[in-house]
UniProtKB/TrEMBL annotation:
SMART domains reported in the protein's UniProt record: VIT (SM00609), VWA (SM00327)
Organism name: Marinobacter excellens LAMA 842
Record-annotated VIT domain positions: 67-195
Signal peptide: none
Domain called VWFA: residue spans: 353-525
Keyword terms of this UniProt record: Membrane, Transmembrane, Transmembrane helix
NCBIfam families reported in the protein's UniProt record: marine_srt_targ
InterPro entries: CHP03788, VIT, VWF_A, vWFA_dom_sf
Upper taxonomic lineage: Bacteria, Pseudomonadati, Pseudomonadota, Gammaproteobacteria, Pseudomonadales
Sections of the chain in a coiled coil: none
Domain of life: Bacteria
Protein name in the entry: Inter-alpha-trypsin inhibitor domain protein
Amino acid sequence: MMLLSLLANPAVRPDLFTARRAKPAAKQSRWLRMAEGISLWLAVLLMLFVHPLYAEARQMDMEQPGQLYLMNDQNARQQPAVILDSEFQVRVSGLLAQTRLTRTFRNASDQWQEGIFVFPLPDKATVYGLRMTIGEREIVGHIEPKAKARQTYERARQAGQHAATLEQHRPNLFTSRVANIPPGESVQVEIRYQQPVAYKHGEFELRLPTTLTPRYMPGEPLAETQGPWQSGWALATTEVADAHEISPFTVRPTDVDGGSHRARIGIEIESGLALADVSSPSHRLHTELDGARATVRPEQEKVLMDRDVIVRWRPVAGSEPKAAVFHQTWQGEDYLMAMVLPPETVGPVLRRELVFVIDTSGSMAGDAIAQARSALLKGLESLRPGDSFNVIQFNSQAHPLFAQPVPAEGHYLARARRYVQDLRANGGTEMAGALSLALGMDSGPGGERVRQVVFITDGAVGNESALFNQIRSGLTDRRLFTVGIGSAPNMHFLREAARWGRGEFTAIHSGAEVDRALNRLFAAMEAPVLTNLDVRWPDQGQPLEPVPARPGDLFRGTPLIQVIRGLPAAGQLQVSGQLPGGRHWSTSLDLAQAAPASGLNRQWARGRIDELTDAARLQGQAPDEQQITELSVRHGVISPFTSFVVVEQRRARPETESAGSQSIPTLLPAGSQPGMLRYPQTATFAPLFTALGLLGLMFSLAIAMLNRRPSL
């Protein structure tokens, strides 16, 4: 207040400010004095306004720590967010894992709520069931075309009915909406899905994603696309049209209720092979082994949903499968799944040109960039005399270390190691520029070499489809290999980028995994062990539709897996190919020895949908929506054009009651830096900072007017 008195006192004003000469102007002087008075009174009022704002901000900062609050359109505090509980019940049989994922949405507020949750599933998941449970009542969902499913859900939500929907945005990214959760009560939503179990190098692996790394959304924002289904921190862009639907808020575990975002996990394994051990690089496990069966759960009763859950098991040495076949009859049709491993063979050592691409964007900050540096240094160690190499780092822009690949010699390698050790993570994830640079780079001197690209990233991008097209069109004679980094990488991007790049992929969960994962990858990169594959099923006089229709080259330790419809379990399956050095290899499999299985029809349908999508991409056309929808509805599996919806017919919410809507955040992936946090609008000091800014503006205006006033 002393400063205000000094400003208002003409007697001291000459001592505070430099007087300036001006022509007398009584009218102008009166207006200046009036503006000064208004400005000073506004400043006083703002100071009186700031104190309660500061007190409220401090109170909101201190009360109920660990409780997330949202703000409504009037900047008023809402009730605590819906509390989320999850349970994974997994049953593994042979090469398929069936999972029952139960989400419990508990409304801790005194208002009816809608819960919206964007979450990951395994990148090869086939979703085939949705159920909703309210109290003792269970309602089974069904599949509808996506637009119709949204309309069905919206009508039920507005009519006060219990309802839920599940829709796919990417093969590994989904949204669940639950309408009209009563105050203080819970609604359970059960999702059923299956996934193939990965098998490489004599080891099976199952991955259960629980959170995701926030994705970079390239392109210019399209603000006009906001609507009732806007549920994330991002706006739709010219390159990611659904960015507003795939960008859930990301918070710390301490930002949510202490009982929220935890999961119970139970896994039953029936491998058909005597098991040597079960392990996990992500969690400590409690395991009960009984021959070919195992019961597995984390040592903690509930695990925090901040990383992928990874479980691996190995058969007893000498009993590793070389081939396997499974059979199912569904609605009168036969389905077969066959797995054949190529022989362990080593071809001639080839000279290679390796271009290492490392992601140094902001999403890689923390443990991920340390793992990426270790992976790249390991790659440099794999180089042999006669090889050439280069290093490209990318974030908002891509930068090569050398203008072109250089020989893998001492001084070049030493310079590259120093360069890699100094890399830090910040900026955006402009992956397209890095791919253009890597795939378009001219070869260095020194003759013909096998050209390979090693792409090290967490895959946290929203424009996957455009990047796959870029890889396909720009690959030429190269092979692209991907290395996934972090506790929650985008496995869909990593797997598909390697497939379109005719290479292999691996994922590194922690620093301890680097040597193990990369030794296998670089061994596979030396050369495919089986090319020119020819798979011949018994001739039944009718066209067959195997998926994949044309399997690619096989790398060391990686099996051929194919599913076919309409063929009984009889006759011989013939598989042949070319080994390194041009030698011929072939094997046969007796289909009559097929083991019984379930879910093969769904696996075939999911593969067929993928084939139709790939074919459209290769032709530069839109996928056949009608055919994909028919496949989806007939086999009961979700697709890009269909969604699950479930509605309880009776009204639950009274007409006199209104309902809110809350987007449930995901947890920051373990090892990530705070820069990846994406908060909803919460109770913060923002109003205080706004008031302080206005106060400063009023003082500046008053001082400027006093300076402009004519001197006496």
